[in-house]
Structures are given as structure tokens and as C-alpha cells.
Amino acid sequence: MPLMDAIKLMSRDWDSSCRLSCGLKQSEQDAEADFISSTQESCVLAVANSRLQGIFTEQDLIELIASGRNLNGLRLIDVVNRDVITVKKTQLQDVSEAIAILDKHDVN
User: Where are the domains of the chain?
Assistant: First the structure.
């Protein structure tokens, strides 16, 4: 998926917060986009073969723009953050566990 398409998805519902993700299905040549609903806000998830490959957030977009790179021609899969912190439902027995996980990984 072109990065510019992902940015459009993120900004589509800017006022009501974006709740979209992008499933990327790998083909032999390139990735094709398959859009699905998600509870993520202001981000795009890259998913291949039902596995999370990365996340692209508003902060990532700001940093990319600040770097001066030309966004045209870039693909989402090439700029996603692959260091994604995931949590299993079984790890979230109470709110304090969730907060501890966020603190441990400096997620804000």
C-alpha cells in the first residue's frame, strides 16, 4: 500500500478519531491492501498472513515529515515501526497489569 493512501486513511475521520487499520497480504511481487475495521486510533496497522508486521502512527508521520523525506513513492510496509508491543488478553487481568506493561515499555 502506498504510504500516501495510509495517511489518507488516518486523516479520513480526523475529527472523530480514526479507527482504521490496513491488512497487508503478501503476494510474490508486492503487498496489496485489504482494509478492515479496528479499535486503533490515529494509526495504521500492517498485517500479513494474520500477523502484525508493524504500526504507523501520527508520531511516525510527524517524524517522517520532519526528516525531509519525499513521502510520494514510499510504501507503508517500508516505514512502519516493527518494534510493536503486543499483549495477550490473558495478561490483562486487571488495569494495574496493563499500566505496568505500558510503563515497562515507555508507551504513552
Answer: 3-104
